[in-house]
Write a structure and sequence with these properties.
Elements: E1 16-17, H1 20-32, E2 39-42, H2 48-61, E3 64-69, H3 90-99, E4 104-105, E5 112-119, E6 125-134, E7 141-142, E8 148-150, E9 155-157, H4 160-170, H5 190-199, H6 206-212, E10 216-219, E11 226-229, H7 231-237, H8 241-245, E12 254-258, E13 277-279, H9 283-300, E14 302-303, E15 310-311, H10 317-330, E16 339-343, E17 347-353, H11 375-381, H12 395-405, E18 412-416, E19 423-429, H13 435-447, E20 450-451, H14 452-459, H15 463-475, E21 480-481, E22 491-493
Parallel strand pairs: 1-5, 2-3, 12-16
Antiparallel strand pairs: 3-6, 4-7, 5-6, 8-9, 10-11, 12-13, 14-15, 16-17, 17-19, 18-19, 20-22, 21-22
Length: 513
């Protein structure tokens, strides 16, 4: 686990002042939003500093968030009566700014302090301060105060096992590098020999070759050493990697499920069009077989359950292949679950064990810098004569571009942290994207949640038409109702926005306003 970083290299933005209009808008959003996984509020006192450090540490270790200083808890006051301002104890804010540079291990990069001018609860002019921190690629602790995670509206110190799990989730550690007690002769397969020829490995035994390219380890004391393959080697070359790795708590297969209709049925008999198909083998063959199987299904078309007519699938082949390649290469191989490719009448869902690595979120995945969870696997797949991946970090961006060119909805990425095994699920919709969605989506990128009145103004439609659009987008999972809102003041966000750095504000990853 990487737990060292020079504090001198940590970027902490100096206090940023916003315009009066911006300040009013941001403050209104803070006051109208409940405390959550991405928002915390605190009055400023001497005891505030340590609690604030715990919150910022927790945000960095989860999905990022905003700490609003100078605001009372919503359970203790309402509306403008919550605005006490940082004038209560400005020295505490100064102390917090100093400590964020030195008290995190490793240092948290890119913390932003934003000062908002406002009218305080007593009618005087004052300021509140928003402290923004993004999801981090590292696992952070506070010096002599532990490692913290963010819950729905509070912080909790993490157990040692949870810290280890988080290191795997973030890609700080990867199961691919772990040695496994699998006999090397089980890796002497046609795929291994093809790899050797393609890569130009000549000298030495198979064990020596695996050691030389970082796919094996020497285990034991000098004179009694044993050479064991790393998990990546088993995945790349063994005929049945899933069977071999089951003894070590992982899985490595892929299952294809083709459904009749648009949902998974809840009856005792599944609504499958045909028996599930399990795809096994070394990763390069598994990818080829899985892509071919899915594309063959799509080429045949599906008979719509309600009408008897065949549906035509419009997904670009490159996008389908990239979704499967990404699932196989970047899944978390320590988790005991197969990849599930689910084909419905109106969409494809690829469920991959594990969450997004590094600082990537569902909200910024289109723009964020690529982060390989399993670099050994990705690098060595490139060495085959016909590699399945270019590994240039542009695959996801290509998917968005190809879906846009085909006039389809963009890929929708969801992270499921509630299931027994956490999964990442990109969804590809087999449905034309109305032009107005692009305009509404762009508006949300700049401004955050959208309301009925906003859609009326953007699309030039009446309230009833805007309501139908919003309901349709909610039904497709493209939007969700903002928590804490009633029908009279309903607002909607993309599900990914729940994971954004601010939760309630546009992101700062270069694509928002």
């Amino acid at each position: 686990m990487r737990l060292t970083k020079s504090s001198a290299s940590v970027r902490v933005t100096q206090m940023i002042d916003h315009s009066q209009a911006q300040s009013a808008m941001l403050l209104e959003r803070v006051l109208s939003s409940p405390e959550s996984r991405t928002l915390d509020v605190k009055r400023v006192s001497g005891k505030m500093v340590q609690k604030a450090l715990e919150t910022l540490c927790a945000f960095a270790n989860t999905e990022g968030g905003v700490l609003a200083l100078g605001i009372e808890d919503p359970a203790k006051a309402k509306g403008a009566q919550r605005i006490y301002g940082v004038q209560e104890n400005p020295e505490a804010v100064d102390e917090l700014q100093r400590k964020v540079r030195t008290q995190f291990k490793p240092g948290i990069d890119g913390i932003r302090f934003m000062r908002l001018a406002c009218t305080l609860r007593d009618g005087q002019a004052g300021h509140v301060v928003l402290v923004q921190v993004g999801k981090s690629a590292d696992v952070h602790s506070i010096v002599v105060d532990g490692t913290w995670t963010r819950l729905d509206a509070s912080n909790r110190e993490m157990l040692a096992s949870e810290i280890t799990d988080l290191a795997y989730q973030r890609g700080v550690r990867s199961a691919e590098t772990e040695s496994v007690a699998v006999p090397l002769e089980l890796l002497d397969t046609p795929v291994w020999r093809s790899f050797v020829a393609s890569r130009g490995l000549r000298a030495g035994t198979q064990a020596e070759q695996l050691l030389r390219i970082g796919l094996a380890d020497k285990i034991g004391e000098a004179g009694a050493e044993q050479i064991l393959p790393r998990r990546a080697a088993v995945l790349l070359f063994a005929e049945e990697p899933g069977s071999l790795l089951a003894a070590f708590g992982g899985r490595a297969d892929l299952r294809l499920m083709v459904y009749a209709g648009k949902e998974m049925g809840m009856d005792a008999v599944p609504n499958l069009r045909k028996p599930p198909k399990t795809i096994r083998g070394p990763l390069i063959e598994q990818i080829d077989l899985a892509v071919k199987a899915v594309l063959d299904e799509l080429a045949q078309g599906l008979t719509l359950a309600s009408s008897g007519f065949k549906t035509r699938h419009q997904y670009p082949e490159r996008v389908v292949k990239e979704a499967i390649v990404n699932a196989v290469i970047h899944r978390d191989y320590r988790l005991n679950r197969d990849i599930m490719v689910r084909v419905f009448d109106d969409r494809i869902v690829v469920e991959s064990p594990g969450l997004l690595p590094g600082a990537i979120t569902s909200a910024n995945i289109q723009y964020a810098r690529s982060k390989a969870r399993n670099p050994l696997i990705a690098q060595n797949l490139r060495q085959f004569a016909v590699p399945p991946n270019i590994d240039d970090g542009e695959g996801v961006r290509m998917m968005f571009g190809e879906m846009a060119a085909a006039k389809l909805y963009p890929p929708q990425y969801r992270q499921n942290t509630e299931a027994a095994v956490e999964t990442l699920s990109p969804t590809l919709f087999n449905e034309d994207r109305p032009a107005v969605w692009t305009e509404v989506n762009d508006w949300m990128e700049r401004n955050g949640p959208v309301a009925n009145a906003d859609v009326c103004r953007i699309a030039g439609v009446d309230t009833l038409k805007a309501s139908k659009m919003l309901r349709a987008w909610v039904d497709r999972g493209l939007l969700e109702l903002l928590p804490g809102r009633v029908r009279s003041n309903a607002a909607y966000r993309k599900p990914a926005q729940a994971e954004e750095q601010l939760g309630l504000l546009p992101g700062d990853d270069g694509h928002g306003g």
